[in-house]
Amino acid sequence: MPNYAQVIVDVKAMQTNRPYTYQIPAELKDQIQVGMRVVVPFGKGDRKVQGFVVELSEKVTFADQIEPKQIEALMDLTPVLNEEALALADHLARETFAFKIRCLQVMLPNVMRASYSKGLRLLPTASSELKQFFGAKEELEFSAERFSKAEQALLRKAQKAGQLEVIYHVKDRARVKKTKFLTSLVTRQNYAEFKAKVRKNATKQLDLLAFLAAKSGQELLQAQVQAQLDLTASQLKKASESGWIKQFERETYRDPTQTKDYGQSVPKILTAEQKNAVDQITSAVKQAQATTFLLQGVTGSGKTEVYLQTIARVLEQKKQALMLVPEISLTPQMVARVKARFGKQVALLHSALSDGERYDEWRRIERGEASVVVGARSAIFAPLTDLGVIIIDEEHETSYKQEDMPRYQAKEVALWRAKYHNCPVVLGSATPALETRARAQKGLYTHLQLTKRINGDNLPEVTLVDMRKAKLTAPDPDFSKEMLEALAKCLQRKEQAVLMLNRRGYSAFVMCRECGFVLKCPNCDVSLTLHMDTHSMKCHYCGHEEAIPHVCPQCHSRKIYYYGTGTQKIEEKLNQLLPDAQILRMDVDTTRKKGAHERILQQFGAKQANILLGTQMIAKGLDFPDVTLVGVLNADTALEFPDYRASERTFQLLTQVSGRAGRADKKGHVVIQTYNPEHYAIQLACQQNYERFFFQEMQLRHLNDYPPYYYTIKITVSAESENLAAKESFLIKKQLAQCLSADAIILGPTPSAIMRIKNRFYYQLVIKYKHEQALESYLEELVIQSQRGEKKGLQVVVDRDPVNFLT
DNA sequence: AGCACGCCGACT
DNA sequence: GTCGGCGTGCTC
């Protein structure tokens, strides 16, 4: 019998990474298990917090004379985290320098994270003044915002005087959805008897009785019966009281796609390359080998079919499959494709689900009712217990890295889980991340290649337009002659075009021609962008909004104009330059609403427009047979980024977007406008030459000591005062210099590329290293110690293998 | 978050 | 001398 439990506690302000010991009350001893959530008292005030049981023991394991406190309650009947999840949380905490509690919570759906509230309850000794303050209520919910400082002082005094007590609530938001059913108890025998008791003119009741008699003994959905016979819930309740029916509730899932019919799709015939890939992966599945495969295949080479047939083999082995795709490509078409092949066995985890729906999908997986899981990044934690394969599509996508605590890389989590389950991992991409391709080169990963497009070899023709020269003859600074001609021809042939505007850091802003003043956000270090739809200037980082100025705020000149180009402005120009064009615009503004993204794609697919104009998001995974022209308006903006992956990103983006042209029998054409036509990333993207790019980029990384030759860790320090942020970052550098060997390189501290966001100043340090004995423990300590700085508004973030260097 | 402890200034 | 300010540290 366990007497004590080790509990990882959810403490807000000061998190330590060690568990706390609690006593298990006698009545819970036979129920408590490792992996359950509990409510425990914590701190001097014994406020109640949620915790996770990570260990049970008979004796106290910590040397202290005080008696541990008792567990207040169990929140679960069965463990919500299994052994694997607990081990993975430990690993994550160590690997990402995150607090254990966060690592445990990230494995569970949001609703299982407790919500806390504080209540104040009147005691009999309360003064009449206090009673008045409470009004008629016994208990008030306390929140700091709701009461004034004076009121808070009053309440505090009353609490000290023993006139009221503080009650802490830990609420489990996980709610199982129940649906009402009923069973008809009306039989041929008792029908007449029931009928005799009903008034002759009570038509509704007589109808119901007849209906029930016809369905004798059957289970019916209450909502359906109500709708069909136009009855209210209370009328059915009466029927239940009369003994006509028996009402009951049953647990149901909130899965909106469950009832949808996706039809059925059959496996396609594989090419020799595809078959080889499926065979090799399947063999690893059968032999339970944790091999990692890099499936490198150009756009249109049929990677998805390899995934689907691999999953089918895994299911034949009575094992389960987990497939990650970037959030942006988790479109209805993509979902339909998987559901059509595997039907109800598929569980879907994506951000569009409500918390409740997500919880239900999680429970379906946990109970083993779904053996194929498809989802975005966080689906990597899906509670599958018998994994046969993990597939990561578009593995080079940076969105597989979580950008807040715990800052995990889903690919690395996949490798860990694969090792735990002895199953293969498939990393798929047309343009693999350099690190991935390098591991394949070294033989750590098995390299599988799909070199042929399914529909024959029809790589698009690429035209590179040098905008430095084009500018002189172009009818417009944003559109070269070549681009406009290609568009016009495409429209003439009644085909479709996709136009990409590389937006980041390149949108319409306002500048004064007289004094050079640029309108900037008052809270962040970025210029405000012009939004024609709302006729205002907006900040993309904090949402600040103000009116469009007509005179320069600095020199009062009237010569204040719009510069740069946003998708809106391009759309307007395009309408003038090509009056025949019907344009659909897809960017942050038009896709903000839920489902808007899909709607735009669907409209374009249905030929309601002939030009799709958008930002990077149009480069990902859309597949329209009639698109024969792809235009890139500004290929270089990603090159200017303060990021050692800038070339790689540019190459990937251009290669991907080029692959969108001419996928079917029609010849495709790609027009790329650039100011750096001789840049290797742009040149090699035009040639669709990944291999050359890989070797060239590897040389540069080697030369500059960047991954995959070095590991990187980024430390970001931010505060409301620039001075404080700078001071702290220099202090950290000093400490780092002491614990690092001479082989390590510290870059910075420097102000981040965007130094100020929401009135906070950002400084960053980047450590490049190969082996450092003391680094891990220093950073672990740094993360824990830096919590105390949070009271002063000082924040320190440690990010292993960072993908974002802007902040 | 909330409570104790400890070190300085203003005060009955 | 003592009361109380809040900066600092800890919570099984």
From TrEMBL:
<feature type="binding site">
    <location>
        <position position="512"/>
    </location>
    <ligand>
        <name>Zn(2+) 1</name>
    </ligand>
</feature>
<keyword id="KW-0347">Helicase</keyword>
<keyword id="KW-0378">Hydrolase</keyword>
<feature type="binding site">
    <location>
        <position position="552"/>
    </location>
    <ligand>
        <name>Zn(2+) 1</name>
    </ligand>
</feature>
<comment type="subunit">
    <text>Component of the replication restart primosome.</text>
</comment>
<dbReference type="InterPro" id="IPR040498">
    <property type="entry name" value="PriA_CRR"/>
</dbReference>
<keyword id="KW-0862">Zinc</keyword>
<feature type="binding site">
    <location>
        <position position="524"/>
    </location>
    <ligand>
        <name>Zn(2+) 2</name>
    </ligand>
</feature>
<feature type="binding site">
    <location>
        <position position="515"/>
    </location>
    <ligand>
        <name>Zn(2+) 1</name>
    </ligand>
</feature>
<feature type="binding site">
    <location>
        <position position="542"/>
    </location>
    <ligand>
        <name>Zn(2+) 2</name>
    </ligand>
</feature>
<feature type="binding site">
    <location>
        <position position="521"/>
    </location>
    <ligand>
        <name>Zn(2+) 2</name>
    </ligand>
</feature>
<feature type="domain" description="Helicase ATP-binding">
    <location>
        <begin position="284"/>
        <end position="450"/>
    </location>
</feature>
<dbReference type="Pfam" id="PF00271">
    <property type="entry name" value="Helicase_C"/>
</dbReference>
<dbReference type="InterPro" id="IPR014001">
    <property type="entry name" value="Helicase_ATP-bd"/>
</dbReference>
<dbReference type="InterPro" id="IPR041222">
    <property type="entry name" value="PriA_3primeBD"/>
</dbReference>
<dbReference type="GO" id="GO:0016787">
    <property type="term" value="F:hydrolase activity"/>
</dbReference>
<comment type="function">
    <text>Initiates the restart of stalled replication forks, which reloads the replicative helicase on sites other than the origin of replication. Recognizes and binds to abandoned replication forks and remodels them to uncover a helicase loading site. Promotes assembly of the primosome at these replication forks.</text>
</comment>
<feature type="domain" description="Helicase C-terminal">
    <location>
        <begin position="547"/>
        <end position="701"/>
    </location>
</feature>
<dbReference type="InterPro" id="IPR042115">
    <property type="entry name" value="PriA_3primeBD_sf"/>
</dbReference>
<feature type="binding site">
    <location>
        <position position="555"/>
    </location>
    <ligand>
        <name>Zn(2+) 1</name>
    </ligand>
</feature>
<dbReference type="Pfam" id="PF00270">
    <property type="entry name" value="DEAD"/>
</dbReference>
<keyword id="KW-0067">ATP-binding</keyword>
<dbReference type="InterPro" id="IPR027417">
    <property type="entry name" value="P-loop_NTPase"/>
</dbReference>
<dbReference type="InterPro" id="IPR041236">
    <property type="entry name" value="PriA_C"/>
</dbReference>
<dbReference type="InterPro" id="IPR011545">
    <property type="entry name" value="DEAD/DEAH_box_helicase_dom"/>
</dbReference>
<keyword id="KW-0547">Nucleotide-binding</keyword>
<keyword id="KW-0235">DNA replication</keyword>
<keyword id="KW-0413">Isomerase</keyword>
<dbReference type="Pfam" id="PF17764">
    <property type="entry name" value="PriA_3primeBD"/>
</dbReference>
<dbReference type="Pfam" id="PF18319">
    <property type="entry name" value="Zn_ribbon_PriA"/>
</dbReference>
<dbReference type="InterPro" id="IPR005259">
    <property type="entry name" value="PriA"/>
</dbReference>
<keyword id="KW-0639">Primosome</keyword>
<keyword id="KW-0479">Metal-binding</keyword>
<dbReference type="InterPro" id="IPR001650">
    <property type="entry name" value="Helicase_C-like"/>
</dbReference>
<dbReference type="Pfam" id="PF18074">
    <property type="entry name" value="PriA_C"/>
</dbReference>
<comment type="similarity">
    <text>Belongs to the helicase family. PriA subfamily.</text>
</comment>
<feature type="binding site">
    <location>
        <position position="539"/>
    </location>
    <ligand>
        <name>Zn(2+) 2</name>
    </ligand>
</feature>
<protein>
    <recommendedName>
        <fullName>Replication restart protein PriA</fullName>
        <ecNumber>5.6.2.4</ecNumber>
    </recommendedName>
</protein>
<keyword id="KW-0238">DNA-binding</keyword>
